[in-house]
Specification:
The protein is mainly beta. The chain has one helix spanning 93-98; strands at 10-11, 20-21, 26-27, 39-40, 47-50, 53-56, 61-62, 71-72, 77-78, 90-91. Strand 1 (10-11) and strand 2 form a beta hairpin. The radius of gyration is 20 Å and the shape is rod-shaped.
Length: 99
Protein backbone atom coordinates (compact mmCIF):
# COMPACT_ATOMS: atom_id res chain seq x y z
CA UNK A 1 0.00 0.00 0.00
CA UNK A 2 1.25 3.48 -0.81
CA UNK A 3 1.15 5.19 2.60
CA UNK A 4 1.55 8.54 0.89
CA UNK A 5 -1.97 8.02 -0.43
CA UNK A 6 -3.94 6.65 2.50
CA UNK A 7 -7.34 5.23 1.59
CA UNK A 8 -10.68 6.45 2.87
CA UNK A 9 -11.10 6.28 6.65
CA UNK A 10 -7.34 6.03 7.22
CA UNK A 11 -4.45 8.47 7.53
CA UNK A 12 -0.69 8.36 7.19
CA UNK A 13 1.80 10.92 8.44
CA UNK A 14 5.14 11.77 6.86
CA UNK A 15 7.57 8.87 7.11
CA UNK A 16 4.92 6.37 8.25
CA UNK A 17 5.38 2.79 7.12
CA UNK A 18 1.66 2.00 7.16
CA UNK A 19 -1.74 3.68 7.19
CA UNK A 20 -3.70 3.97 10.43
CA UNK A 21 -7.47 3.53 10.68
CA UNK A 22 -9.50 6.46 11.94
CA UNK A 23 -10.99 5.90 15.42
CA UNK A 24 -14.25 3.93 15.55
CA UNK A 25 -17.18 5.78 14.04
CA UNK A 26 -14.98 8.34 12.29
CA UNK A 27 -14.28 8.82 8.58
CA UNK A 28 -11.69 10.61 6.45
CA UNK A 29 -11.09 11.34 2.80
CA UNK A 30 -8.49 9.37 0.85
CA UNK A 31 -5.05 10.93 1.21
CA UNK A 32 -5.51 12.10 4.81
CA UNK A 33 -2.26 12.78 6.62
CA UNK A 34 -3.22 12.89 10.31
CA UNK A 35 -5.83 11.77 12.82
CA UNK A 36 -7.06 15.38 12.87
CA UNK A 37 -8.41 14.71 9.36
CA UNK A 38 -10.80 12.10 10.80
CA UNK A 39 -14.28 13.33 11.68
CA UNK A 40 -17.67 11.91 12.44
CA UNK A 41 -19.95 11.28 9.48
CA UNK A 42 -23.12 13.35 9.29
CA UNK A 43 -25.85 12.00 11.54
CA UNK A 44 -28.97 10.37 10.17
CA UNK A 45 -32.37 11.98 10.64
CA UNK A 46 -33.57 11.40 14.20
CA UNK A 47 -30.04 11.84 15.57
CA UNK A 48 -27.82 14.87 16.29
CA UNK A 49 -24.06 15.44 16.45
CA UNK A 50 -22.18 15.64 19.76
CA UNK A 51 -18.45 15.79 20.54
CA UNK A 52 -18.54 11.99 20.72
CA UNK A 53 -20.57 11.28 17.60
CA UNK A 54 -24.26 10.89 16.85
CA UNK A 55 -26.85 10.58 19.60
CA UNK A 56 -30.56 9.85 19.21
CA UNK A 57 -33.00 12.72 19.76
CA UNK A 58 -35.09 12.27 22.88
CA UNK A 59 -38.86 12.05 23.20
CA UNK A 60 -40.84 15.09 22.05
CA UNK A 61 -38.06 16.24 19.71
CA UNK A 62 -37.01 15.56 16.11
CA UNK A 63 -34.16 16.26 13.69
CA UNK A 64 -33.36 16.02 10.01
CA UNK A 65 -30.18 14.49 8.58
CA UNK A 66 -26.96 16.29 9.52
CA UNK A 67 -28.46 18.06 12.55
CA UNK A 68 -26.33 19.51 15.34
CA UNK A 69 -29.30 19.63 17.72
CA UNK A 70 -32.88 18.40 18.05
CA UNK A 71 -35.96 20.59 17.66
CA UNK A 72 -38.72 20.44 20.25
CA UNK A 73 -42.24 19.56 19.15
CA UNK A 74 -44.73 22.43 19.36
CA UNK A 75 -46.63 22.89 22.62
CA UNK A 76 -49.03 20.06 23.36
CA UNK A 77 -47.45 17.70 20.82
CA UNK A 78 -45.37 14.61 21.54
CA UNK A 79 -43.12 12.28 19.55
CA UNK A 80 -41.14 9.11 20.09
CA UNK A 81 -37.37 9.22 20.59
CA UNK A 82 -35.56 9.27 17.25
CA UNK A 83 -38.29 11.17 15.38
CA UNK A 84 -37.18 12.50 12.01
CA UNK A 85 -39.55 15.38 11.23
CA UNK A 86 -42.14 17.75 12.67
CA UNK A 87 -44.78 15.47 11.11
CA UNK A 88 -43.83 12.88 13.76
CA UNK A 89 -45.09 15.27 16.47
CA UNK A 90 -48.73 14.52 17.25
CA UNK A 91 -51.25 15.89 19.72
CA UNK A 92 -50.96 14.33 23.13
CA UNK A 93 -54.25 12.44 23.57
CA UNK A 94 -54.08 12.90 27.36
CA UNK A 95 -53.85 16.69 26.92
CA UNK A 96 -56.83 16.72 24.55
CA UNK A 97 -58.95 14.60 26.92
CA UNK A 98 -58.16 16.84 29.89
CA UNK A 99 -59.37 20.00 28.15
Amino acid sequence: MDVNNAGENTYSGAGASECTNCPDGMISAAGSSSEADCSYDLCSAGDYMTENGCKQCGENTYSGAGASSCTSCANGKISAAGSTSEADCVLNVQTVLMV
